Structures are given as C-alpha cells and as structure tokens.
Amino acid sequence: AIAAKDPEHAATYRANAKTAQDRLATLDATWQAALTPLRQTPFIAYHDALGYFTDHFQLTMVGAIELGDATAPSAARLSEIQSIITEGRTQCVFPEAGRDPKFVAILTEGLPVRIGPPQDIEFISTPAGPGQYALMLDALVQGMVTCLTP
C-alpha cells in the first residue's frame, strides 16, 4: 500500500519489507525451537491479547487477568484466576509492562507460582526503531522460556 502511494520509493519499501519478513522467519524458527518443549506448561498472562501469540506457538495459556482494555478485572475474574493458581494449574503468571502490578502481587501472594518478567505487548519499554517488533517478540519469548522452564 505504501509503495502504491509513493511509487518513486516503491523498490525500497519492497526491499525493506522482504528483509523484515526474512528476519522474522529466521527468528520464528529460533523461537519455535525454544518454546516447543514448553507447549504443555500452563501459564497466566495479564491480558488476553496474547492469544494470537500462544496460538502461533501452541502454548498453554490457562487464563488472563484482564479480558479487555476497557475495564479493570472484576472480583469474579480475579477469583477465577486465583483459583487456577491456588489449585496449582499454572506454573507462571506474567505481569504486563505499563499495568499496575498489584493484581499479580495479590493473586500470587504466598503461593508457589513464579512471576515472569513484564510482557511489553504495547511497546512501552521496547526501544523504538526498525527492529522494535522483533525486539518485543524476542523479549516475550525469552521471558516465557525463563519462567516456564522447570
């Protein structure tokens, strides 16, 4: 679409897109190798937006604290998530960068569950630039590997 609007630079846009696609394909293979052994390890994410990521890598997300951006999680939602943790049905809970960590702290207090690094799915702490998307995904993968590995 950008190339069509700026034909003078179309070749550059297409070359950059190809480079980015090739880089992501290479990284995807690396990420698949790292996450494949962890596919059956259950975890809780802060936000359900991680579903596309978990589907792609066939990971086992057993819950999300927040189901949307419009409102804070309800007491019923927090109770449901805490039950999953209390019953030992998850190994790790991931906070989200830029979100109040109090829910994760309250839900996990005194329970034998790991707290993973904050997931930066909104690019709050990932440096801006041409590789920002890959950096965010790589940090997400590395955080999962760290928290989900027994």
General shape: elongated
Elements, N to C (H/E): HHEHEHEHEH
Number of strands: 4
Rg from C-alpha positions? Answer: 18 Å
Which strand order does the major sheet show? 2-1-3-4
Distance between the termini: 45 Å
Mean pLDDT: 92
- Approximately what portion of the residues adopt beta-strand conformation? 5-15%
Unreliable runs, pLDDT <50, ≥5 residues? none
Oligomerization state: single chain
User: Helical content, roughly?
Assistant: 40-55%
Give me some keywords for this one:
150 residues; alpha/beta; four-stranded parallel beta sheet; 6 helices; 11% strand; elongated
Written description of the protein model:
- This protein has 150 residues and is an alpha/beta fold.
- 49% of the residues lie in helices and 11% in strands.
- It has six helices and four strands.
- The protein has helices spanning 2-5, 10-35, 51-57, 75-86, 102-108, 132-148, and strands at residues 42-47, 60-66, 92-93, 114-115.
- It has a four-stranded parallel beta sheet.
- Strand 1 (42-47), helix 3 (51-57) and strand 2 form a beta-alpha-beta unit.
- Helix 2 (10-35) runs parallel beside helix 6 (132-148).
- The radius of gyration is 18 Å and the shape is elongated.
SSE topology sketch:
Elements: H1 2-5, H2 10-35, E1 42-47, H3 51-57, E2 60-66, H4 75-86, E3 92-93, H5 102-108, E4 114-115, H6 132-148
Parallel strand pairs: 1-2, 1-3, 3-4
What's the gist of this structure?
The protein has 150 residues and is of the alpha/beta class. 49% of the residues lie in helices and 11% in strands.
